[in-house]
Specification:
Layout (H helix, E strand, L loop, with lengths): L13 E4 L6 H7 L5 E4 L3 E2 L3 E4 L2 E6 L6 E2 L6 E6 L2 E6 L2 E3 L5 E6 L4 E6 L2 E3 L9 E12 L2 E3 L9 E12 L2 E3 L2 E4 L3 E3 L2 E5 L2 E3 L2 E4 L3 E4 L2 E5 L2 E3 L2 E4 L3 E4 L2 E5 L2 E3 L2 E2 L9 E4 L2 E5 L2 E3 L2 E2 L6 E4 L2 E5 L2 E3 L2 E2 L6 E4 L4 E5 L2 E3 L8 E6 L3 E5 L2 E3 L4 E3 L8 E2 L4 E3 L9 E4 L79 H10 L13
């Protein structure tokens, strides 16, 4: 005779506020792991605390779901919790409290997606304070009007590991890090930093941290040092970013784009455009730092004193400058667009200089350097969006880079931000670059492509479209198609 074994299977529930529960706090208290709390398109004035909670999703109806808090220092507080998702919400700090805080000795796997945070205010992290936690992701998040002493938009603490994707940080202010202040580990991609202000690092301020920023835009940020990015100690990797119309005014040390102090950094395929400083470095400033600057473009930057483009100061500062285009930058008489002082050293080669005032470089020419018009596509003074710094057909910078460095197509590298192995390419000629084309070897696969019943995600939206399939075909495809691997570059977040 068989023993009867009773098996209990927990089924995830959807808790509605209002509806099944009158308050968010009540719904959280009733929720079980795997549950989903759905908030109506209303304003909620309550402090939300997730303490020791695991596997819970809090979802709104978009900007109409407004969370304001009541008395606490943060509208949402996440402590010692895991697998928490906040999605499609608007969080209003009302210039009295921060938006979100994440802390605790045991916290991680937090996803904040499609969330807008406005007018946050706190000493630490006016928009979001992430004191600790691995696997914290902010995706499609917009943080505006936040104020703090440290980390106006976001503060990443020394025990935190954070990824920011497809987000906007605009109009935030702090002493250190108007957009983001980092002391732990930060990765950023496809994010816009605009109109932020700080003494150090108006866009991103990295202090003893590991900071990686790819494919992002820094525009109209203002700082004392490092209007775009400021890095002190730690290390940084900055790839395919645009720094435009940054301004800095410290007196001795400025940098409208990036300032590197007592650190190491790798800068590849960045554009520095229309930066302006009162003293040093319209683009990049090295102070006791070592940096590899490869395939970058510096155009139209202005320094009131030295270095319209790059300033290298101090005996421990070492710049390796390769395949970089430096044109139409201005600095004071006797200064170079590339300017080294106090034992700062620059080496490298295969760079292009053109029409810099008052001089190209205090170092003199390096191997393979050119002094010729690069034939840029279009330069509209002061206009970040209308300017196009791609090389025209016939440009002397094409295939003139370091012969040991290749373009994505395998040919000799171009000089400037659109050459070298990290340049975006359209290898299959379908009009979509490799950062958004999920198969750059097939011209029929690209964003916007038509999909048929083939079991293939042709439009790179992360979904296999079965709408044109017969029921039997749909079932076959569902059984044979798995998720695409992470990092395939398919776009769509």
């Amino acid at each position: 005779m068989f023993a009867l074994i009773q098996i209990s299977i927990a089924v995830a529930a959807e808790l509605n506020v209002p509806g099944s529960h009158a308050t968010i706090t009540g719904a959280i208290a009733a929720a079980q792991p795997g549950d989903r709390i759905v908030l109506a398109e209303l304003r909620f004035d309550e402090d939300i605390v997730l303490d020791g909670v695991d596997d819970l999703e809090l979802v709104g109806a978009g900007p109409g779901t407004r969370l304001r808090g009541r008395k606490g220092p943060s509208v949402i507080r996440i402590r010692n919790s895991h697998q928490i998702t906040l999605r499609d919400l608007r969080i209003e700090g009302a210039s009295r409290r921060r938006g979100i805080e994440i802390l605790g000795a045991d916290v991680g796997e937090i996803l904040i997606e499609g969330v807008t945070i406005v007018d946050g205010d706190a000493a630490l992290g006016g928009g979001v304070w992430i004191a600790a936690g691995e696997g914290v992701i902010l995706r499609r998040v917009e943080i505006t009007g936040a104020t703090a002493i440290t980390g106006g938009g976001i503060l990443v603490g020394p025990d935190a590991e954070v990824l920011v994707q497809q987000s906007v940080l605009s109009g935030n202010q702090a002493r250190d890090g108007g957009g983001i202040h980092v002391e732990g580990q930060l990765s950023v991609d496809h994010t816009t930093f605009s109109d932020n202000a700080a003494a150090l690092g108006a866009g991103v301020d990295c202090l003893g941290a590991r900071c990686t920023v790819w494919d992002s835009a820094f525009q109209d940020n203002t700082a004392g040092r490092g209007a775009g990015v400021y890095v002190e100690r730690g290390s940084a990797e900055l790839v395919r970013n645009t720094f435009c119309r940054g301004s800095a005014s410290h007196g001795e040390a400025d940098a409208a784009g990036v300032m590197l102090e007592d650190t190491t950094a790798d800068l590849r395929n960045n554009v520095f455009l229309f930066g302006e400083v009162s003293s040093q470095a319209g683009g990049v400033y090295l102070l006791g730092a070592g940096a590899s600057v490869t395939n970058n473009t510096f155009v139209g930057n202005v320094s009131g004193m030295n270095a319209g483009a790059i300033y290298v100061r101090g005996g421990s500062s070492r710049l390796e400058l390769t395949n970089t285009l430096i044109a139409l930058n201005r600095s004071a008489p006797g200064s170079g667009a590339l300017h080294t002082v106090q034992g700062g050293h620059a080496a490298g080669g295969y760079n292009l200089y053109w029409s810099n005032v008052s001089d190209d470089s205090t170092e003199g020419p390096m191997v393979g350097d050119l002094a010729v018009d690069p034939l840029l596509t279009r330069l509209v003074q002061g206009d970040c969006s209308a300017t196009d710094l791609h090389l025209r057909v016939g440009s002397p910078a094409l295939a003139a880079g370091d012969p040991t460095i290749q373009n994505p197509d395998g040919g000799r590298s171009d000089i400037g931000a659109f050459g070298g192995p990290d340049a975006l390419a359209d290898l299959d000629g379908d009009g979509s670059y490799s950062d958004e084309d999920c198969d750059d070897s097939d011209p029929e696969i690209h964003p916007g492509a038509a999909e048929a019943c083939e079991g293939i995600d042709k439009n790179c939206d992360g979904i296999v479209d079965l709408s044109s399939c017969e029921p039997e075909e749909s079932e076959l495809i569902r059984g044979s198609v798995g998720p695409r691997p992470a990092g395939c570059g398919c776009g769509g977040g």
